[in-house]
Specification:
InterPro entries: Phytyl_CoA_dOase-like (IPR008775). GO terms for molecular function: 2-oxoglutarate-dependent dioxygenase activity; iron ion binding. Keywords: Dioxygenase, Oxidoreductase. This is Phytanoyl-CoA dioxygenase family protein. The chain has 276 residues and is α+β, with helices and mostly antiparallel strands. It has a single domain, classed as Jelly Rolls (Sandwich). It contains 7 helices and 11 strands. The longest helix is centred in the first third of the chain and has 18 residues. The protein is globular and about 40 Å long. The chain starts with 21 loop residues before the first helix and ends with a strand.
């Protein structure tokens, strides 16, 4: 059931084009991440901070105290496909502005939804270990990108997303689920490479985009405030389902691409085209 919301922002902002320069597209293609400022204005950000926070409160079932959880559990509260639960959240997730950026960065003719997720790192929550997202995804190409949308200004002490630039070239570590093992093994591997470890704060309205195979992590939240982030995972409009290579990919097939068939384009009711 939808919650009723007052729209205190200009709806047109979500669909206004955000034109990238060739230099920015080239940067993403080389490094497989990019941070872009002023994607959302303050009114829009504040509006969706409240809308998404309300939906997370409504959906959250975590009852285990923070200090009793494992590393993954301490990293964040994780809630999926909020767009199916609330029509106002859907406005953000279906933003042509953000989906258009994803399309430009990947140099594809369009994008469709894989799924969305809210990642709320609670006050004094732990690290998010090094990992590559596409370990979990039964997708037959690397034409995927995640928009990481902080719902507030995010200084270093809140644990913003960190990237190992251009690390999508590394094969070692791709077989690891997120956890203590991935943090240790990938950290050791990255130490002996020349890939730049990017640790920067996020301004309000700044969004990052990263590909499925680039390694990334986040530090702990050293503040009492929750670090609130919404993410949208996009895939090439022509993405096909591959034969799952692990139990997580098997799970993701039936959860995020229900009814899709191996070797065919993932065109299901919950994988709609978001751009053009």
């Amino acid at each position: 059931m939808d919650l009723q919301h007052n729209t205190s922002y200009d709806l047109k902002v979500l669909d206004e084009p955000y034109t990238l320069g060739q230099e920015q597209i080239d940067f993403y293609q080389k490094n497989r991440y990019i941070k872009l400022k002023h994607v959302l204005d303050r009114a829009t950000l504040d509006h969706f901070n409240k809308v998404i926070s309300d939906q997370v409160d409504k959906m959250n079932t975590q009852e285990v105290p923070l200090d009793e959880r494992d590393t993954y559990g301490k990293a964040f509260l994780q809630l999926f496909n909020l767009w199916l639960e609330d029509s106002e959240v859907k406005r953000l997730v279906f933003s042509k502005r953000i989906a258009g950026i994803a399309t430009q960065l990947m140099k594809v003719r369009g994008v469709r939804m894989y799924h969305d997720q809210a990642l709320f790192k609670e006050g004094f929550g732990g690290i998010t270990p090094w990992h590559a997202d596409q370990y979990y995804w039964p997708l037959d190409s690397d034409k995927t990108v995640t928009a990481w949308i902080p719902l507030q200004e995010t200084p270093l002490e809140m644990g913003p997303l960190e990237f190992s630039a251009a690390s999508h070239a590394i094969v070692e570590g791709r077989e690891l689920a997120i956890g203590d093992e991935s943090e240790n093994i990938i950290n050791q591997r990255l130490r002996v490479t020349d890939f730049k470890h990017v640790i920067e704060p996020f301004d309000a309205g700044e969004i990052s985009f990263h590909s499925g195979w680039v390694f990334h992590r986040a530090g702990a939240n050293a503040t009492p405030e929750t670090r609130k982030v919404m993410t949208i995972i996009y895939m090439d409009i022509d993405m096909k389902l591959k034969n799952p290579e692990n139990k997580n990919q098997e799970h993701d097939w039936h959860t995020w691409c229900p009814g899709a068939k191996i070797g065919e384009v993932i065109d299901t009711p919950i994988n709609p085209v978001l751009f053009p």
